[in-house]
Structure formats: C-alpha cells, structure tokens
Amino acid sequence: MKIRTRVQLIIVLSVVLAATVSLILFLSIRSVNKASQKMEITAEIVKGVVELKILTAGYLLHPGDRSLIQWQSRYDSVTKSLTGGYFRSPDEKSPVDHIIKNLERIKTVFVEITIGMRKKQRSGKQENTFSRALQDRLESELLVKAQATVSLVFPLQQKIQAEFVISQKRSTLLTVVLLLIITLGIIGILLWINQSVARPIAVLEEGTRIIGSGNLDYKVGITTTDEIGQLSRAFDKMTHDLKKTTASVSELNREITDRKRAEEQVKASLKEKKVLLREIHHRVKNNMQLLISLLRLQADKIEDKKYADMFKDGENRIRSMSLIHEKLYQTQDFANINFGEHIKSLVDGLFVSYGVDTNKVSLNIDIKDISIDLENAIPCGLIINELVSNSLKYAFPQGREGEISIVLRPISEDELELTVSDDGIGIPEDLDIEQTDTMGLTLVKVLAEHQLDGKIDVDRTKGTQFRIKFKRTD
Fold first, then answer.
1. Residue 3 — φ and ψ, nearest 5°?
2. Number of neighbouring beta carbons within 10 Å of residue 330
3. What is the pLDDT averaged over residues 261-284?
4. Would you tell me the crossing angle of helices 129-193 and 3-61 to the nearest 10 degrees?
5. Would you place residue 334 in the very low, low, confident or very high pLDDT band (cuts 50, 70, 90)?
6. Facing residues of 366 across strands?
C-alpha cells in the first residue's frame, strides 16, 4: 500500500471514528436529558395534584370565585402535563390513564358541587334533607378521589426517577466502553504507523548518509512494496552499478552526477514523507483533543463522583498519548522522542488536573537526555500517567506532604529501567497486582509485560515503588 494511500485511509478512519463517537455521545446525552425532562414533568404533576387536593378542600370550606379560578387553573395544568405525550411506555401509560380518569371524575363531582352551591346562593332557601345529603355525599366522594389521585402519582414519580437513574448509568457505561475501544484502536494505529512508516524512513535516511560517505558495499535492504521500498532498491541498485563502472574520468563524473541527482530526489522524497507524517501526528493530536473535550462535556453532566473520576482518568490517558504526538509534530526526528521533556509536560498536567499543592507534594524527575522511539514512548507514558495519578489520588490523604519520583536510566547497552515511586502511605499489603481488578493497575501490568515485553516489580518498604525493566527497540 502506498504511503499517500495510508495517510488518506488514516485521515478518513479518524474522521469516521470522531463522527461516530460524537453521534453516540450526543444520542446518549439526549436520552439522559429526555429522562431528566420526564422526571421534572412528573415532579410538577405531583406538586399539581397535591395543590389540587388542597384547593379542593379549601373551596369546600370557603367557596368563592377566586378559589374556583385557582382550582380550574391547577386542574388544566395537571391535565396538560399528563396528556402531553411524555408517558408512552405501557408501564407508565396504565397509571397515567388511571390518574386521568380520577381527575375527570373529580372535575365532574366538583362541577356538580359548584352548581349546587350557586343554586343555593341564588335561591337563598334552606336546603331540604335530601339535597343536603346529596351535597355531603358528593363532597365526601370528591375528597376521597383527590386523596386516591395523590396516592397514585407518588409511585409514578418513583418509577420515573428509577428510569432516570438507569438511563444515566447506561449512558456512563456506554461512554466508558467507547473510550476503552478508542484508546486501544489508537494505540494499534500508532504502532502500525511507526512500524510501517517511521522506522523504514529512519533506516533509509541512515542508509543515505552511509552511501553518501562513499561506502558502496552498504545495502539498505528494505523489501516493502511502497515508495520507501522502491527507494531502498534504487539505492542498492545504484551502489551495485557504481561498483561495476569503469575507472575512466568521464564515466566516473557521469556516475557521480547521476548519484547526486538521485540523492536530491531521495532527500526531496524524504522531505515529502516527513511532511505527510507530521500531518498524521497533527491530525491524531487534534482528534485526541476532540475526544478529551467530549469526555469533559459528558463528565460535567455527571453528579456521581465515582463516574466523574473515571472520566477524568480517561482524559489523562488520552492526554498522555496526545502529548507524544504534539512532540512529534514539533520535532525533526520522528524515530526518537526526548522523553524527559515529554514526562515533565505530562506530570505537570496531572498536578494541575488533580489540583495538587506543589508546596506539599514535590516532584523529582531524573531522566537526563534519554531518547526513546515511539513504540516504547506511548506505553511508558501511559504507565507513568497511571502510577502518578494513583499517587496523587491515594498516597497523600488529608493534606499529607511527600515526594513523587520518576527515574529512567540505562542499566545496559540495550536495557532500560523505569522507576516510579512515592513516600506516601503505600498500597495495601494484600493488594496483588497480578490479581488486581482495578483498571489502572491492570493497564500498567498489560503495558509493561505485553507492550514493553518487560518485567515489573513492586517495593512497599517505604511508600510504594514500581520498577519496570525493558529492552530498547532497534
């Protein structure tokens, strides 16, 4: 597959992924909003029915035009909310129909009572025993129906509130699952880009330098079918042909001219590929920023602190990967990253995200000028993000002072050791990271053992210390 085709495919997939996530989150938020609106309408109905009962009793005690107008207004308001099409499911429609039927009966009885009272006021005559008994029976039925209606609306309100809670939890779970899938997908795409584009470009660039210095026995040896592979085979053929040329001055000058022209073409092609690769990192960074913004928008609507913290952790994980692409977009070396600068930016962002007082919790970073490639930088950044986040959240409770330390050092020519530690209260002795069910430590274990192909050790002697040994990639 050509590099330009890969770039176009990645751009299309990124746009489709962002649009899909946006649509799903939008539908999820709309579902929660509809449930919230239904809960508010139910609360208004409960309030209206209770007030209607109070107004009914008040009118029976002190009949008058003002009380009648207030009763009619409240009855119309409650009836409009019940018949507005908000309750469509069979579980909701049955009690709502019962409430409406009670209200209609209440109105019928209320109208009969008001008509009787008005006739009495106009005639001014004493009521006979039968009329008085009928009036008393109607008033008694009116109060009973009003109380029965009040008893019906409270279970309806509880059912709507339960549906709202379920809708909110379902929306949160869907968002978390999407976040996990997107994170794993982005990691896979980035590793594929590094394996198929960034590393061959670095090898070809090194081959250009060696051949340009006069070593015609050097073979680049890239066998891919894309433009980089074609350039590699062209280089190898060029060096082979140069070795077979005659020693004549004219022939040698011609070969040198052709060789310089080929070198300029290669440099121009490499420059174009770097521009394309930089555009990939820029677009991936922008898409990650979009995901962070969408997660923050969703988190703002969640009142449960547990789920809000889960969204904050997700934002920090994506921000960790986004910082790497920002560094790659700004650098000229796509094969290696200045890891010290990257980690300083990452941890400073975590301190700000968790609102940590740097006068109480200090940070010590000892990474020197170590540069590592993209294949190791992404999992290392995610591991540091998880371990520092755990330290900031749990190691220093109730304003406790302490220090967080991050050290990356070579322990041999091809092996590095990453140490993340704090002098806080430490993790529980009964917590086994091999059997843990927390997402953060599980992610650390998977990244350390499967992505870095390394070994992880935990020291709980003083606070908590994680040591991860892994090999450099070529």
1. -65, -40
2. 10
3. 61
4. 170
5. very low
6. 407
